[in-house]
Design a protein that fits this description.
It is a single chain. The chain has 77 residues and is an all-alpha fold. It has one domain. Helix content is 61%, strand content 0%. It is built from five helices and no strands. The mean pLDDT is 90.
Length: 77
């Protein structure tokens, strides 16, 4: 990310929340490993939201687990 980019406010981060979740879901669907995902901008932004407003936003690690469960085939009984 260019260093000249302005710092995002919490309001900016909240406005982009659904886009960051979509990007994270795509990374999980593409099979990226956890360390690679943690180096992405979307993980950083989701983590900032979670640390700033933990009651309102899940941690990106929780979201990754959720997306992995959704992507895995249903377990047969």
């Amino acid at each position: 990310m260019p260093s000249a980019t302005k710092a995002l406010t919490i309001g900016d981060l909240e406005a982009g929340f659904s886009s960051y979740c979509q990007a994270l879901r795509r990374l999980v669907a593409d099979g990226r490993d956890l360390n690679a995902i943690r180096r992405t901008v979307c993980w950083d932004y989701l983590n900032r939201l979670h640390t700033s407003l933990p009651k309102d936003y899940r941690s990106p690690d929780e979201l990754i687990q959720r997306f992995q469960k959704e992507a895995s085939p249903a377990q047969a009984d």
